[in-house]
Amino acid sequence: MEAIQAMSQVDRKAKVTEYSDWQDKGCEISNACLECPLPKCKHDDKLWYEKYLNLSKHRNLILDLQDYLYAPKITNKFNELAAKHNIATRTVFRMRRRLINETLDFDMIELFYDRLRR
Question: By C-alpha distance, which of 10, 9, 106, 3 is closest to 58?
Answer without folding.
Answer: 106
